[in-house]
Prior knowledge:
The protein contains 19 helices and eight strands. The protein has 450 residues and is mainly α. Strands 3-4-5-6 form a four-stranded mixed β-sheet, with helices on one face. A two-stranded antiparallel sheet has the order 1-2. α4 runs antiparallel to α5. The chain is elongated, with a radius of gyration of 32 Å. The termini are far apart. The N terminus is likely disordered.
Amino acid sequence: xxxxxxxxxxxxxxxxxxxxxxxxxxxxxxxxxxxxxxxxxxxxxxxxxxxxxxxxxxxxxxxxxxxxxxxxxxxxxxxxxxxxxxxxxxxxxxxxxxxxxxxxxxxxxxxxxxxxxxxxxxxxxxxxxxxxxxxxxxxxxxxxxxxxxxxxxxxxxxxxxxxxxxxxxxxxxxxxxxxxxxxxxxxxxxxxxxxxxxxxxxxxxxxxxxxxxxxxxxxxxxxxxxxxxxxxxxxxxxxxxxxxxxxxxxxxxxxxxxxxxxxxxxxxxxxxxxxxxxxxxxxxxxxxxxxxxxxxxxxxxxxxxxxxxxxxxxxxxxxxxxxxxxxxxxxxxxxxxxxxxxxxxxxxxxxxxxxxxxxxxxxxxxxxxxxxxxxxxxxxxxxxxxxxxxxxxxxxxxxxxxxxxxxxxxxxxxxxxxxxxxxxxxxxxxxxxxxxxxxxxxxxxxxxxx
Length: 450
């Protein structure tokens, strides 16, 4: 009676402190589960940081890098972590004792499996958030793609649950690393068979930077992968094993839908179909809207070329960066993709080379099988005037030390350059207008030469 009275007189905080903690709390806060989340986080961050030049600054590229890391690194790690956690009872020799517990087998399973599944998913989400922040400050356009990393977090959690089942069924200490290696191999085979039917069932289907998944594709993928994981869980731990048929049916239905849809799993991002233009130059400069924040840098890189073409006729209307190629009145704008070459972290890396590539697109005779030597020297002179190659001086030095034919070609190029530069502005503008009227043809007849 005295003890009960004392209990009632204790403050609410002390009474709460004396209550036993929920058994899941210690699993979530201490032990193996938090370590798995940290391991997934560090693995994904290191894997992304190594190739940061190829994705930082592009939202679609960041999405694809995170997705690749989540599938090829995160899922195998989640399988191994779940498997190791599932084999804990075998290693401790407490399996028989726990089976006499009042709680059902499914409750016991979830009590040890859910903390690992939650932590590996959280580790992925934190890595994804940090990668998105790394792209945010130097993003070149478009907007974040959040559906894919959220879907990947669910898939990684499902992989941990499936791995837990394997750990309980297979009492072998090496089961976890073998399962991780097997999962990596299977996912790699499925993912890199880009045009095969199995790729549509992979958590890493073919997805180009200019594409986005259709709205139901992430849901179907979760139903397919998650259905298989839930089937394994219920078949192993549920009191009524027949309930495993429900998620299995959902997984089969989702797999059939994914396999039969084919290329319809993705669509072109509407942003990738739009051009953003600077109309103050000749030709105009238009970039894909996914990289619209690079337009001022591109316009500045081409300012020398477009300034020399002011007043020249017979030019294309604009430089354009279209997915299906330039139209009749357009010319190809050198691409800034893949990131890591022409553009890194929202900056053009080699403006001079970029301008030279744009000038070469204007000449347009690179695809000709044979070109008249005099016309080739004329093209080289125009190229030199508009935007010379960064390697031009090196090529000239090599030809000067080469065979007689190389030295003769060098002399012809130098003489053509001198003639073009010696013209006054009005004469050169008129000559360039005549030149660009035939600049894309392989026939030398009618083309002006120097």
